[in-house]
Amino acid sequence: MPLATVNPATGETLRTFDALDAEEVERRLAAAEAAFRTHRTTSFAERARLLRAAADLLEADEREIAEVMTTEMGKPVTQARAEAAKCVKAMRWYADHAEGLLADEEPAEADVKDSGASRAFVRYRPLGPVLAVMPWNFPLWQVIRFAAPALMAGNVGLLKHASNVPQTALYLEELFRRAGYPEGCFQTLLIGSKEVEGVLRDPRVVAATLTGSEPAGRSVAAVAGDEIKKTVLELGGSDPFVVMPSADLDRAAEVAVTARVQNNGQSCIAAKRFIVHTDVYDAFAQRFTAAMKALKVGDPMDEETQVGPVASERGRADLEELVEDAVEHGATVLCGGERPDGPGWYYPPTVLADITPGMRVHHEETFGPVATLYRAADLDEAVAIANDSPFGLSSNVWTREEADVDRFVRDLEAGAVYVNGMTASHPAFPFGGIKRSGYGRELSGHGIREFCNITAVWQGA
């Protein structure tokens, strides 16, 4: 895939970029190694000062970088501005909390004595240069949620961003440079996917994090496993959104629409499978479908637009294939389902009902504004449908019954359970999944420790 900005609203190629040659990649790897030797010794106060400076710059650049993101991958510009603001919040959160999250931990006094030590503690030390392979759907946020904790821990970053967001990738490198980070602390590698293996196998790169597709995750994990290097993977998701009889149906339907079409439906943690108790199925389906039909689809630069184009022509074709397969196998289209005329890679908000396990859409992720509706006879069937997926990223449950909540928290196979609300990432809470949604965690104290050397220190008398 060429390194290019192609406007999804028009299909027009706006800018192209040359990939780095082997000599420049080598120079950047050497710079990362050299930067780590110094950055790892800096104080938390100095790291926090630099990260806050970067946050201030990003806050000032919010409108400008939002337009770049919208141009490159098509998200509504209002959502792009919100993404930039979220990054600022996370950067400041880690600047404020990293030192406490990575403070030395002391075992119980009795255990220290039993070990024969006069003193013992655990220290979190940085690992080194970490390769981040990042996707296009949240081109700022996905990177910052890695970079902020990694830099605060004393690591340095190498970013291989998606090929269709090169301007955002270059902006991120420049942001950290402008903030005062020394050369090599955070660098963008404008390279193709075929060059990732060589970078990951380089002994100066100590670990990798990837957010993206399952095939990409398998590839990176295989190489890292061969090299015995740590990885964190956040892959696909097909999150269930379960509605029980006691739910506030009006609120549940309202949130369900946002949960499905946020970021033009291109979010790993977007709700995709709507599993509704039979007692309230018809009422929910009517509310949900009407609201999906009413969404304003259009130019993502328009402040009133709620759904813009999907990011690529291939992405739209994938959606069409899933919908067509479902219809051929008996699914009912409640709204949408047909490609509109005109330029750009638009696809309408679509609701499919009567889903069966024989349809591809039942087990595959729909990365766009397509929702599937399921009718569940009771709580047991709702749990069974929710777990009948190769993915396990997050989940949403709507109920006012505490017994329901306890059961879902116990039995849902997911990295998170959101009750009476929409799944969202926040710097204070761990983020990640199980099954084919990946492993490891980002954000919170769990995330910052993923790329640390958890060092046991034992000291005799």
TrEMBL record:
<dbReference type="InterPro" id="IPR016162">
    <property type="entry name" value="Ald_DH_N"/>
</dbReference>
<dbReference type="InterPro" id="IPR016161">
    <property type="entry name" value="Ald_DH/histidinol_DH"/>
</dbReference>
<dbReference type="InterPro" id="IPR015590">
    <property type="entry name" value="Aldehyde_DH_dom"/>
</dbReference>
<protein>
    <submittedName>
        <fullName>Succinic semialdehyde dehydrogenase</fullName>
    </submittedName>
</protein>
<dbReference type="Pfam" id="PF00171">
    <property type="entry name" value="Aldedh"/>
</dbReference>
<dbReference type="InterPro" id="IPR044148">
    <property type="entry name" value="ALDH_GabD1-like"/>
</dbReference>
<dbReference type="GO" id="GO:0004777">
    <property type="term" value="F:succinate-semialdehyde dehydrogenase (NAD+) activity"/>
</dbReference>
<dbReference type="InterPro" id="IPR047110">
    <property type="entry name" value="GABD/Sad-like"/>
</dbReference>
<keyword id="KW-0560">Oxidoreductase</keyword>
<keyword id="KW-0521">NADP</keyword>
<dbReference type="InterPro" id="IPR016163">
    <property type="entry name" value="Ald_DH_C"/>
</dbReference>
<feature type="domain" description="Aldehyde dehydrogenase">
    <location>
        <begin position="4"/>
        <end position="457"/>
    </location>
</feature>
<dbReference type="GO" id="GO:0004030">
    <property type="term" value="F:aldehyde dehydrogenase [NAD(P)+] activity"/>
</dbReference>
<dbReference type="InterPro" id="IPR016160">
    <property type="entry name" value="Ald_DH_CS_CYS"/>
</dbReference>
<comment type="similarity">
    <text>Belongs to the aldehyde dehydrogenase family.</text>
</comment>
